[in-house]
């Protein structure tokens, strides 16, 4: 889970991880192999990305959108298989949009739409999922729904999920490994309770905060008090 | 959808029959059949069918199919619903290159000037894409369309100048200014058909990639489709299709616009269906326009290029007016406070809005709703709480 203020390079980091940007220095590796050595489709079978903003073409249905996630698994002569069908159905069921298969994406509410896109990324059937702010625009119930889904995918499906979140408390609650960024650099990383400290929140976000412990899960709980340097 | 495709084939067959039977001189279907099946049928009617109407019909099918496919490809690549080889100046480029080839290089044979057409189509497409901002990040639907219209005007005046000043050009294609499928003999059709068939094959092979690319450049790459190869292959296909059609028939507009839109109304956004439909409907449209042009002005004829413009012009205006030319699909966050009545305000699309009545108002509170509209309907990439009126592409969190 990646946290950090606006314009600190979170999306840039995710783009570099997912090969959309080539780093000027250094190499990104996946399972010990440089990502630029992967074939186009091969990489898309290993790692999926949901960018911050995506545009669905006019009039596309949810089912059609999710089916397009199968592209990297298809070849010129092997277009649509039973496996594709099964994976798409699982993705639709996991995200709870199975009822919406025949609805147009442009008719959906924000939460439904986000879940449809998540279903598309799931249909890619990769071990690594990169989600750029998957909960933005969603109400609290849908946020929790998406995060619980991610947690389930992580714990039961054994997938690695890299996500940018803006809500520190949610990040602390759901992350197994938290990375805090500022000004294009990683400032701190580790278990949430080691990363979310009063000093770090002040340094990274410029916010005075009190950190206590959430009574239910024991995750750190951040209560903002005000901006640093202001009463 | 497969059923619909069968239906489209039947409609095309009817158009072919109509094209063979109707004209300045009406010929009974039985006489047409005789002329086509028995080589010894001579007579006037048989002669008209075999030497005039058969090449004309085949060219109508081939060129219409090519333009329909080229339009669908261009709309997919540019994500611009108004993209079309006629409107974006590709056909005009092919025509200008052919005219130049005839005037300056003495290329009077279709086998030679066809290559000029491909080159002209390719160069025009690249120039229009460059001016229209397709290669950069600052392109817009309107900008690309204007760039195409401007280049098309420049190129067709160039063609006209050559037609007026070089008799040789005038002789070879005096109907070229508007485009027609009439009066071309079979050798011309035979020369361009292979190129068009290759172009159609490329277009059909690209359809899964087009589907993925339609989700946006980043998403397309994340799914493993290389945008650059897709764009290049599509450009080659458009060059062959539009260049081939123009080399044989002259610049024809609007077929490539209307066919994909009709197809989209039937099959939706899946290019694996959209493209075959566009091909069939393109052929139906061009042939239909040609037949209508023969019937309404009888005993004279209206050239098919004029007919496609008469039919296609209103289609163009309707599409430009009706559609939100760019829209986002995932919601986006703005720092601007939302309008109190929220995204339910449909002021700009409301049919109740009187034109010319000033800025549209919210249908519930009467307050200016344009800000709301902009707020909720801008493409995600353009909106982010920045100053939209100034057109500054603000990002929600400064690009983090």
TrEMBL record, chain A:
Q: Which branch of life, at top level?
A: Bacteria
**Which UniProt keywords are present, listed alphabetically?**
ATP-binding, Cell membrane, Ion transport, Iron, Iron transport, Membrane, Nucleotide-binding, Transport
Subcellular localization is given as: Cell membrane
Q: Name one Pfam family in it.
A: ABC_tran
Q: Which PROSITE patterns match?
A: ABC_TRANSPORTER_1, ABC_TRANSPORTER_2
Gene3D superfamilies in the record: P-loop containing nucleotide triphosphate hydrolases
- Its main localization is membrane
Residue intervals of the ABC transporter domain: 1-208
Membrane topology value: Peripheral membrane protein
Q: Which InterPro entries match?
A: AAA+_ATPase, ABC_transporter-like_ATP-bd, ABC_transporter-like_CS, P-loop_NTPase, Siderophore_ABC-ATPase
Q: What is this protein called?
A: ABC transporter
